[in-house]
Amino acid sequence: MTNEAGKKILVIGIGAGNPEYVTIQAVNALNRVDVFFIIDKGKDKKGLIRIRKDICERYIKDREYRWVSVPDPVRAKSDPAYSTDVKAWRAKRADIFRSFIEDELEDGQCGAFLVWGDPCLYDGTLRILDDIQNDIRARGQAAFEVEVIPGISSMQALAAGHRIALNRIGEAVHVTTGRKLAKGLPDDADNVVVFLDADMDLAAVPGDTEIYWGAYLGTDDEVLVSGRLGDVRQDIERIRRAARSEKGWIMDTYLLRRFKPSKES
Q1: Does pTM top 0.70 for this prediction?
Q2: Contact 9, 2 (CB under 8 A)
Q3: 140-191: per-residue pLDDT in tens?
Q4: 178 DSSP 8-state letter
């Protein structure tokens, strides 16, 4: 393994879909990059790659750069072994990231991963890079440098789209995944933001819970629905099915807010 000193990796949050969500800090970072690394998730999600490239074409000025793309490893999804499946999949991604850095980046060059939303919120890129750095250091070698550029998350875009604050007065916000909602809302959570929910099974959530749902946030295809869960659940399910059938993918986020009598709101 070669010494990685002098190589730099930028992990750039590019926002939830709208090119105008890209911050000035991110624009400046884009203009330092020599090689952009992409994990290709297949033909159904080519639109996600296109948005990344559109952002670069829009904001990078008078600088040559190139793209390196590798297919995403297949991840098993056996429910009881979920954590084991994720670890195995992450190890495969780590091998890809390592080859990106070793083989595609020269000393003194800057590589970048463009992360949807914010790199620090439900994204594994930083953890994988940290594992690689630790392995390099364990071998007594100088690791590459990592810099993180924050981005506007879908959670922020969701709240802005619905023109709401994520919490009511004096309440906390609980952030979780769809998998964690199988048994309903957490007992001590009044405002729950949900990411990564492929199936959106809310059967265990009371029908009087308020929901603020959004898909393709920040893009021309953005769609928003809000109301009592019992009233709008079927509408959301219908919209999700149609959108996924048409585009081949869906990225959505939602806020669940526990019902309270008006005097407590």
Answers
A1: yes
A2: no
A3: 888 899 999 999 999 999 999 999 999 999 999 999 988 888 888 988 899 9
A4: G
